[in-house]
Write a structure and sequence with these properties.
Blueprint lengths: L2 H16 L9 E3 L6 E6 L2 E8 L4 E9 H4 L2
Antiparallel strand pairs: 1-2, 2-3, 3-4
Length: 71
Amino acid sequence: MPAKARTSMLVKLDAIAADPFARHPFDVKAMKGMKDVFRVRQGDWRAMYEVIRVGDTVLVLIIDVRGEVYE
């Protein structure tokens, strides 16, 4: 992952972790058929994460390019 994209993705994930249920200004979408699993994009890169409500935790499941992350 290029350094600029990595930095931008980390900023987004940090903002999500700080308040996972807020409306964020970047492209966050819920994954269909997966409870509390969302994706955020940064250019061609995607991060899938799960919000664990009991522990108030955001768990990053995968960060990969668009074509690979959904397989």
